[in-house]
Amino acid sequence: MASTHTEEPLAEDTANHDAHIYEEVMLCERMEHNQRLAVEELITTEASYVHNLQLCLSDIRAHLQKKQLPGLDLEGLFSNIDDILHVSRRFLRGLQDTATQGHEQLLSISTLFQEFKEEMEMVYKIYCASYEHALLLVESYRKDPRLQEEIMDTLTATVPHTSASDLSFFLVMPVQRVTKYPLLLGKILENTPASTSAHEALAAAVRAMTQVNANINEYKRRREVATKYNKAEQLTLRDRFARLNTHSIAKKTTRLSRLLMHEAGIVAKTEDKEYDELEEKFQSVASSVAALKENVASYLQHLEVKPRLCAGSWSHPGLRTRSGGRRTPLRPLQTAAGGAQGFVFLS
Fold it and tell me: CA 109, CA 277: separation in Å to the nearest integer?
């Protein structure tokens, strides 16, 4: 009887152990299955994306170019989408090549994203910064019956299977794609065991693409700020008064009070060293351009209608005319920005 009572707990422990092992095996198989599906999703959606980019350029844009419609800004609409297609084609080939690499596939995919991250950031940040302008163009074309009809005829003729209502259906694709890369990689990562070597590589790829998106957003933000202030500088005094309202006055008052508190030391200043360095470089370039403009204007002012080049006749920093030997000094570029001063050839 004692033997029977001892065997029952042992059998129960064995059953529990087997059940635990079974659950672990099933969990691993489920993760592996989901991981495989996530990898397939990454590759198949990339192929579909590249195909749509090709349609956008070789069919839609080419069709609109042939029409030569006045008032249609194709460069503003499509921006640098050619560069995006070039990078995406190469990236897709790399993804497709990983399909034959077996257990090394995840490591290869991670490496591929690391290799392409800088190129992707460079082309996508330009496109994303111009995207809102493209949408404004699309909206303006909707209000022009003639242009809208021509655009819809092009979409019907070239991509009838997409049921696209306007060009924004295709223009948004690059914006959506670059923001989806961290999500697609994250889905693969969450189905990869932490004990594998691919886990850390995938995590690094997720961080890299997340940073790429953050950099794109920051670039876009700075472009918007620069555009905003450039437009403000071009406004006439009447336009500036017309834009004043209670809200804008309140904002300016708040900014002024904050500035006064910063200067008085009541509130600590927020510093952005990278922004300050970029601003300093911008001011230096702007000063150089202004100096160059003055020099060229001075040169053109004293240039004769039919100049006769005299070999070996150089002058710096001024220009000399034949009549009267007068000299109009040029403003040295070196005073505006670092670098060697230029020499101007005299006629």
Answer: 36
